[in-house]
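Job type: complex structure
Entries:
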Amino acid sequence: MTASPLFGIPAPRLLHRFRSAPVDVADLHEVALDLLPRLATPRLRLELVRRPGAGTLLCVEEEERSQRVPLVDLADDMSSAGVPGTPAGIAAALRIWVAHRPVTDDDAAAAGIAVLDWTDVTRTAVGWTVVVARGVVTVPWAPSPAARTAELHRTRSSATGRSHDVPLEMRVEGPLALWSHRTVPVLATAALAAPEVMLHRIAGAGLVVPDIHVVVTPHRPVVCAAPGVARRLAGQASEESVTLPWRDLADLPWI
Amino acid sequence: MSALPARDSGVQTMVPHWVDAAARERLAAVVRVALDEPALHPVTTIHLQDVLTELHVAAAREAVWPASTARVRLATGWNDDVLPVRLSRDELAAVLRLPGLPGFLRSLLGGRERDA
């Protein structure tokens, strides 16, 4: 039984999950009939397709992207993730599932933001990626096969520019500066797309740090500190992180 | 990218001491008073400065990676403001040598079990 952020259920709520009633596919069908028309837009088609003898499919189509998921599988996934089997619980989970749909090339070009993420499952290195924020959900953009190289560069460049404008909170904790986003944790690393601005704010807060290093765990607050302090922080941490000089940020690869 | 090593060889093991906010504030105050003492040995000065740094680092560690400490607090029933302050043997020794260290901090850092 694994929880899934796809439904907005945090992983450690074991007790909650054991207490939850399973999501019934008939209840999901009823909720979807009511909710999907309200989530659809002229570009986003959300339809239930009945297949006699084979169950209902939920079809999501938006420009070059499309998904088809058997409703019974979605109900099972929601149950496994601990989604409450109530109309309100199912509706909230379905809303978040739709928000996690793939990002189109146009959406990435129009609203993408550059952030850092792990380059692979071993979590030993980070690289830049483009995400699109949909409320509190962020979805990484995977360029479609049709996306040309010039468009790819334009989208990444625009996303880096947008990162400069992401409103982030800076907290000074002794010799460390912590950067975070109030509601969308993954956006914290957007600060690193404009390191000079970040350094300026740190200096403005009265924190004098020679040779600033950044400690990055994607989806978590970012920390800036002197090398020794950064080493102390990351070396005793319980989770993976990458520590690097701020000047190396621009050289990180795109994922 | 030149990621720093997680630990330097030869660095002492850092031992966590679970300390609440009030005790951390008191510890910081005692250390600051000691650092104002001009006759303090330079090596002790370095260790005590590192203790002050660790008090800040502990708070930052909690802000960035709260999950594992939250699990410990859940299991022990400790309050949310109880954090692990990780000190080396030398840093701990420097603190325990401070004449102005309150008894409760000496007990806490000296290895006695803290009250939940």
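Summary: Chain B is about 55% helix and 10% strand. Confidence is low (pLDDT under 50) at residues 1-9, 112-116 of chain B.
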